Amino acid sequence: MKIIKYISLALILFNLPSFGLMAFGDSIGSLLSYGTIFMVFIYYALEKKSEPNWWIIIISILYFVISSLQYYGTLRFFLLEIVKFFVFIIAGYELIKRVSNNELFVFFIIGALSVGIEALFFTSDFGRYAGFYLNANVAGFICIYGYSVTYGLKNNTLKLFGQFVFTLMGLLTFSRTFIVIWLLLNIISLKISIKNIRIFGVGFLIFATLLFIDQVVGLNNPRFEQLKNIVNNENVSSEEISEDSRTETWALFYDQIFESPIIGSGYGTFSGKNDTMGVHNTYLMIIGEAGILPFLLFLIYISYLFFKSYVFFKEAPFLIMQTISLSVFLLANHNFFTFYYMTFASMWIQYQIYKLNNQKDEDKFLEV
Fold first, then answer.
1. What is the C-alpha separation between 307 and 304, in angstroms, rounded?
2. Residues 316-362: pLDDT tens digits?
3. Nearest-CA neighbor of 110 among 18, 14, 16, 174?
4. Fewer CB within a 10 Å sphere, N or C end of the chain?
């Protein structure tokens, strides 16, 4: 079972279906995509069954059913997307229940290191790197989520190593969202222990490493140049910093949302599946494609994760960090229902909260 478990995790968390599609073509990409669902299903079939994830199931049913009302694309494609996703959230939830924080750390750090491998050996004129994840902003999510996971490690040496790697790899994505969340998480970490201030010192070492990489391979990235200018106290215009802002992209879709707020505009209209630009925001994608009902339920779900992870901050501070990482990155990405590692991340947080709730109830029962 462990072999099936680890193969499934590698396929999901390393984004191998999409990477295979880009690197080796349609045949390999399709094989890995169906292979992911097959491996997760086999694990589910052989493992003991328990309660499914009703939160995600209900949200997904509402999203797909309502968005289908105005879907005019290929029916076969749409049905395959639905079947694969529901197999994943039902079967994959049993897999998630048996994934420890340490195992999660190992898979995320391997995924993050793929960013560094691309930066060193497959340099590009664009100057942003994504490794297995193809998109630098998505790779930034992997790095910041992995960084959050380190606060659940008991080994301090491993924790510090992970924080260094995830920070360096995250900076190589040159994702502004990564940098903002990284700063926020480190401020929160001071509540855990004032000793965590050391990570800001490690930040100088990380920046020096970036300078070295820039000298060796040439990062050729305007955002890195802006960062160097800020450090050197040179002028950087606000227009340069805010260039290609996500808020400008979101604004292009507001009118369309207001035109059909009840049932949305249909599947694919906000997520770029019709060969158009996507909204780059999961929250706007849900209300834009399926209307207000699944949108409100999804907001309640995210709020629940926030509230419960805050309640259990003392027992598991990494949960609030993971929730922040996920929820903020969903503001810059519209692929919650297609990028399985994002759905995986949310369900893992949810199950850890479920376990803590049960432990709390058991403790109360024993006290009585």
1. 5
2. 999 999 999 999 999 988 889 989 999 999 999 999 999 999 887 66
3. 14
4. C
- Which of 106, 15, 66 minimizes the C-alpha distance to 333? 15
What pTM was estimated for this model as a whole? 0.88
Contact 177, 137 (CB under 8 A): yes
Q: What share of the chain is helix, strand, coil (3-state, %, to 5)?
A: 75, 0, 25
Q: Which residues contact 148 (CB under 8 A, 6 or more apart)?
A: 185, 318, 321, 322, 324, 325
Q: Which residues contact 167 (CB under 8 A, 6 or more apart)?
A: 143, 147, 182, 199, 202, 203, 206
H helix or E strand, kind and range, residue 8:
helix 2-13
Q: What is the dihedral of CA 334, 338, 344, 346, to 10 degrees?
A: 30
Please answer whether residues 256 and 277 qualify as being in contact, where contact means their C-beta atoms are separated by less than 8 angstroms: no
The DSSP secondary structure of 111-154, one letter per residue, reads HHHHHHHHHHHS--SS----GGGSSHHHHHHHHHHHHHHGGG-S
Residues 6+ apart with CB under 8 A from 348: 96, 99, 104, 322
Whole-number average pLDDT of the chain? 86
| Strand ranges (E), 156-287 | none
The share of the chain scoring above pLDDT 90, in percent, equals 57
R_g (Cα) of the chain, nearest Å: 21
| DSSP sequence for 202-229 | HHHHHHHHHHHHHHHH----HHHHHHHH
What is the residue whose two structure tokens read 């290609």?
A: 244
- C-alpha neighbours within 13 Å on the C-beta side of residue 95: 36
- From 44, 67, 48, select the one nearest 338 (Cα to Cα): 67
